[in-house]
Each structure stands twice: as structure tokens, then as C-alpha cells.
Design goal:
mainly beta; elongated; 453 residues
Length: 453
Amino acid sequence: MKNLLHTSSYGPIAVYVLAAAIFAIGLFSDTVLPKVAVGQVGEICPFAVPFPCPPGQEYFCVDVCGTWFGGAYECSNSQGCIDKITCESFGFFTLPSGDCSPTPPPSCVSTSGNSCSSGANACGMRGSGTIDCDGNCDAVTPDGGLCPVPPTPTCADSGQLGTYPACYDAPTCADYGQLGTYPACYYPPCSNGSPGPYPECPVGPTEPPVCPNGSPGPYPSCPVDPPVPPECTNGSPGPYPTCPIVPPPVVDTCEDLGFIGPPPCHAPPTPTCADLGLLGTYPFCYPDPGLPPEPPEPTCEDFGQIGTYPACSDPVPGCVPDLSCKANTCAGDTCADGCGGTASGTKTIDECEVPSGGPPMSCTGPTVTIKASPSRVQVGGTSTITITGSGLNLGCTVTGPGVSQILVPNSCNLSATITTPTITKQSVYTVLCAEGGATETIIVNLIPKFTPF
């Protein structure tokens, strides 16, 4: 110090220059050079450049080295920052108003710089980092959004059936008290020989002996039913073996009953004398005496047959017709020839004449009958209708299937035969006289014809 402040002959100039230098060095050391404690000594060491400190703190040296030179000791590499302390600095000296000695910073923990990890997130992920000087880990816990999305669970994960979460265990045969592998389950056989069902295994009653005669029982009486008679083969309900045929019911038609129209039947319209080419009021008809006689109608005899034209048929073999009745029968009437046929009358005089003004009303007690021979015919056969009457003054009308004639009485009497056309169904023939309500009806039935089955 004395050497440094030593003066020469320059005198005041040297003092001034020295004072200025000390002030500059002090100012420099107060802003740049490290703060050091007074009286520290050490070896000369490399100059260390101080590093900047945050506001409110200042640079300091933990260790210094070298000797005093230029107003300060040089710092070693151990340097840092501490809160500012109030000291008076002047020139090369730092004179504290109190204790200006710096307080060394706390030393770092022994694990500083080691690797560390953060806490786990929801899926167990952890962050990695290092331990700070103060012992804290700077690792950050990963965000939960980084966790992988778990797969959707299924019932198969737990070895079950169904759709998650409605899972259920697969059924087994044991669930139903059965044996086997589901669904091929089965009950065990009954141990008592019963056919089942298991587990009841009921034992039925002992079967009775079988009748040896083929009877359904009961045993031991074993009654035998009487043998069943053979069935009729012709469609008859029996009894066998006669198997009579029941004719089907005959349904009468209006025509069969001497009427017309579908049911309900009604009487045919009343003919007029003019319809018949006669005079008078029906049924009081008579020929017009002023007209020439009409040519006779054809007869079956004209063709060597019998019957009433045009319903003619061949005569019965071996039978010789008796035509003598023709002469005694008025023209327009017919008489039986004795062989199943009829003959047309030829008598036109005497009692056959009808005087003008109408016939005399001298006959009394009018009656009339009508018969059919045969009254039952085969389908396609014919029948002879015979009409007889007495006490008749006026004519009678004969109607039926294929027949419509007016008969005129002769001397109060009436006699005529008419052969019907072919008969195919039940037929009704009626004779209706104009006086006294003389009316008769005859029915010609069919003989049923059956075809064996």
C-alpha cells in the first residue's frame, strides 16, 4: 500500500492522478468487479467474468484468490448472486455499514440431476424428467387424453352368450335335470322298467291276457260279435241277399197333373169352339152344318199300324184288329180295336148330328170314367186311355201329355180310346165334361229300370 501510494517529485500531480485512478477503480469494482471481504488473501488465479444477476441481487465471490491488486481480489470460478446488502463502497475499499459478508447459497441436494418420473394418469402413464437442485422433479404427468381407448367388452370375453352387458351363461343339460351335451339332452332310462316319463317312471297295470279267439275282450269272457252279413252289390241298403231296389221318389210336374206351368201349377186356358173349328160356346160346341165336311185326318190304320195318329205303333203280333166299331163311332171319335190300338169313327148321321141352336138337353145323370191300360209302363212305352160316360148332353175334353181332344156324346153316351204318345215320365190324363162336374183323372206311372252296379 505504501509502495502504491508512494509519491515522487511530481508531487501534487501524482496525488491527483492517483486519486482519480482510485475513484475509477472503485466505481468499476462497485458495478462490475466482484464484492470481496476485506483482508482476504490468496493465490493469483485466472480472472473470472461475473455473470448478470436478477433485479434485487448482486454478484458475489465465494472464494477469492491472488493478492490485492487493482483494488480487488480476483474471484475463483465459484460465484453466484445474493440479495443486495447495504455497504459503503469507496475507491478500492468496500466498507460495510454493517456486516457485508455474503451468505453462501444453499448447496444442491445430492440427487440433483438424477432422472425421475411423474405420477401416473388414469391409464398408468407417467412423464419423465430430472430432479432440480432443490430436490423437486420437473417431470409432468401425461394428459388423460393420451390414454388409449379400451376395446368394447363382449360377452365372449367372459365365456358367456348374449350381447354385452346382457350376458348369460350357456345352458346345459344339467339345468333341466337331463344328461347329454346341450342341446342334445335326454332323460336317463327308468330303472324300474317303466317307459317313462322320467323321473316319475310310472308303472302301469298289468296287461290282461289276450283272448285266443280274436275277440277284443274283455278277458276271460272274450265275447265274439256275430258275423257281419255281406253287403248288397247293387246299391240296395239290404237286407242281404234279397237286396231290394227302392225306386227313387217320383216328382210330379204340372203337366203330369193335367196343368201347365212351373209350380205353382195352373189350369190350361179354356179352349173355344172356334179353336176346334166348331160352333157354339165351349164346351157346347157343334159342327157348322153349312160347311162341307173336312177331309178325314190320317189314321194309324192308313199305315197298317195301331194307335191314334200320329202316335202309331206296330200291332201286337198275332192279333187281328176288330175295326167294326168304326161304323158305330162318330167321326172325330175313336174306338178300341181289341189289339191295343184304336180306330177312328166314321159315323156322321143320326145322333152324331148336332142340330143348329145346340144339342137337346134330354140326358140326365152325367157320369164319366177314364182308365189307362197299362197303368204302369216302361220308359218309352205307351198306354191306352179309355173314356166312357153316360147321361151326357154336351162334350168332354181329354187332356194330358201329348193328348188334347174333345169328345162328343152319342145318345147320352160317350165311349173313346186314345193311345198316348211315348211316355218318359209319370203322366196325368184328365177328362173334363161340361155338365154336372163330371171329371176324372188317371195317372200312368213308370216301371223303374235299375242298372246293377
